[in-house]
Amino acid sequence: MPDQTNAPDPTGSASWVVSQTDLASELAEPGEAFPEVFATSRMIALMELAALRAMRNQRTATPFGATVRAQARFVGKEGELYAFEVVASDEAGEIGRGTHHRAVVQTSRLLASAQKRRSARTH
After folding, report:
1. Any residues with CB less than 8 A from the CB of 103 and at least 6 apart, and which?
2. Does 6 fall in a domain?
3. What pLDDT is stored for residue 111 in this prediction?
4. Residues 121, 77 within the same domain
C-alpha cells in the first residue's frame, strides 16, 4: 500500500485579478510584440499556487535572492499543440519539472477572444 503520510489534499485553489503587470505585453522584451492578454506564465503561476495549496505539507524552498533558471526542450507536436519538457533549478539544483503545451495563435483572434470574455464579464 502506498505511503499516504505526505499525500496531497484532493484540491487546492487560487485566484487573482489580472492587472497590467500580468499581461503578456508587459513581460516582453523591447521589440517583441506580445498582446495585452493574461500572460501564460502568470496562468501557470496561478495553477502552481493552487497545486501548492493542495500540498501544503510539501515544499521545495528556494531562498530569497537566489537565481532561478528555467529550460524548455521541444519534444514534439501533439495535434496542434507543441509539447515541451520544462525544468526549473536554482544554484543548489532542480526545484521543479513538468510538461508544457503551447499553441500557435493569431494575435487578432486572441485579442477578439479576450474582448469577448471581457464583454461577458460585464454583463
Report:
1. 80, 81, 82
2. no
3. 87
4. yes
